[in-house]
Design goal:
By secondary structure, the protein is an alpha/beta fold. It has 18 helices and 24 strands. Helix 4 crosses helix 5.
């Protein structure tokens, strides 16, 4: 039996009040793509940070090619041939691709950087990947997919033999995902071992050879992809049987509540019109850049609209700011919850109170007891996992952050709720809970708009689907009867 490229045995790590890892084992072979799966908080990030040298394990061992090794810093990990590409790229925006690739490991002679040699080496790396990148453009001007390629090239420049990819397709178009998979296949041929962390099960079955599943800091299973079903993976991740990815719905949508007529905003939104009924979930989908997020931001007053009318229950609304939308009973769970939905350095309690201060403040003082009592109700109802109300929001898992955003809008008693990519970066268990909440809100008569790039989510949750392309609505289909090919055709217009 061949010696694994990487062995992690009995890895233990704890933080104050939290046992993050409980004796986790993980192995990786040369030229293998290992999918690392688990719910938010299962221990995946902690395990990868130990591998990357950012954290030290309390107990356990790591071996590369059968030789034991200890990492005291990220530099030790890189020297051992390990490169971690995090979801948030670690690039200097103002530097070009060449300078980012060799940052900290410049090619020098007599203390002078050998720019020509670095450029030739960068060209060679991108040829190895089969792509062309503008080597002179600052990285801030590159697309997300191109920035990711710069990260991969940097890993190859440091002779990485183990590559960790954390949610690598979260912000990529379908075409860019296909290109990434082609590059991963090429890296496999070069005997590079890849640990692929993702919540997107469709991708796992496309790209991975084997899976390792973590739950509550423990390894609960390792299987070749050909020996496990999608449903078995979900059940192992959440620790319980689930009848499906999407809960059943039995609500019949009522009369139109929110009406959008001739909405325009710059070149991103052009003459968009639609309505959402009482108790209805309307999906807004399309390719990246179609104008979906821009449309809901105009409705919420986050951006200035050039023309159009917005009506709620037949009454025309004058929405010039998010405050106007909130006062009218419209809430938005934004696409980027960390920068637009929460103030990460503030506590859960403070985040909950922000949009509700008009109710919670009396004589310039926050009624703290009322604030805590209301928040406690939503913590119980939404099953928000936290150490306490004063926990910093930035320390919550992605799924629990999303629940805090939802809690503050539910406290406003919003009649229209807009969910922009509500399950991006969230594990399947938390996704299911979000879906259940959406169904419950619809059953209460709320009107919901779901903006999503995931075809399965659109068809599994919505009553109707509006498809956008280049700022315009190109079609409307019944979600219960639509085929993915029909929606894709409309999205490509």
């Amino acid at each position: 039996m061949t010696t694994p490229l990487l062995e992690m045995r009995g890895i233990v790590r704890s933080f104050p009040g939290v046992q993050a890892l409980r004796g986790v084992d993980l192995t990786l072979q040369r030229g293998e793509v290992l999918a690392l799966l688990g719910e938010n908080g299962a221990g995946k990030s902690t395990l990868m940070k130990i591998l990357g040298g950012a954290f030290a394990a309390d107990d356990g061992s790591i071996a590369i090619d059968g030789r034991p090794i200890r990492f005291r810093s990220p530099q030790d990990s890189r020297r051992a041939g390990i490169a971690v590409i995090y979801q948030e790229f670690n690039l200097i925006p103002g530097l070009n691709a060449v300078d980012n690739i060799f940052l900290g490991k410049e090619m020098t002679h007599a203390r002078f950087i050998r720019h020509t040699q670095q450029r030739r080496r960068a060209e060679e790396l991108f040829r190895r990947l089969g792509v062309v990148i503008d080597l002179d453009a600052p990285c801030k001007h590159l697309t997300t997919a191109q920035q990711q390629l710069v990260e991969i090239a940097r890993a190859l420049a440091f002779n990485a033999r183990i590559l960790v990819m954390d949610e690598p397709t979260a912000a990529l178009t379908s075409h860019e995902v296909e290109c990434l998979f082609t590059i991963i296949a090429e890296l496999r041929k070069q005997q590079i071992g890849i640990i692929y962390v993702s919540h997107r099960l469709n991708e796992i079955f496309t790209i991975a050879d084997r899976i390792t599943i973590l739950r509550d800091g423990e390894n609960v299973g390792e299987r070749p992809l050909g020996e496990i079903t999608r449903q078995e993976i979900v059940s192992m991740m959440v620790g319980r049987e689930m009848s499906g990815e999407f809960p059943p719905r039995s609500v019949t949508p009522g009369a139109p509540r929110l009406e959008v007529i001739g909405l325009r905003g710059g070149l991103a939104v052009r003459e968009v019109s639609f309505h959402v009924g009482r108790g209805e979930i309307l999906a807004l989908t399309g390719l990246i850049g179609a104008g979906r997020t821009e449309t809901v931001r105009l409705i919420f007053g986050a951006d200035r609209r050039d023309a159009g009318e917005i009506r709620l229950d037949g009454k025309s609304l004058r929405i010039r700011s998010p405050q106007d939308a909130i006062a009218a009973g419209i809430g938005l769970l934004p696409e980027d919850r960390q920068t637009q939905g929460l103030t990460l350095r503030h506590s859960v309690r403070e985040n909950f109170g922000l949009p509700n201060l008009d109710r919670l403040v009396r004589f310039c003082f926050v009624r703290a007891r009322q604030e805590r009592d209301e928040l406690r109700q939503y913590i119980d109802a939404l099953k928000i996992k936290m150490s306490g109300m004063e926990q910093v929001a930035g320390n919550l898992s992605g799924g629990n952050q999303q629940k805090v955003v939802l809690a503050k809008w539910l406290a406003r008693q919003c009649e229209v709720l807009i969910f922009d990519e509500p399950t991006r970066g969230i594990d399947v268990g938390a996704k299911y809970e979000i879906y259940l909440l959406m169904n419950e809100l619809a059953a209460e008569g709320k009107s919901l708009i779901l903006v999503s790039s995931e075809m399965s989510e659109v068809l599994g949750m919505a009553d109707r689907v509006l498809v956008m392309h280049d700022g315009r609505v190109t079609g409307e289909v019944d979600a219960r009867q639509a085929a993915p090919e029909e929606i894709l055709k409309l999205a490509m217009a």
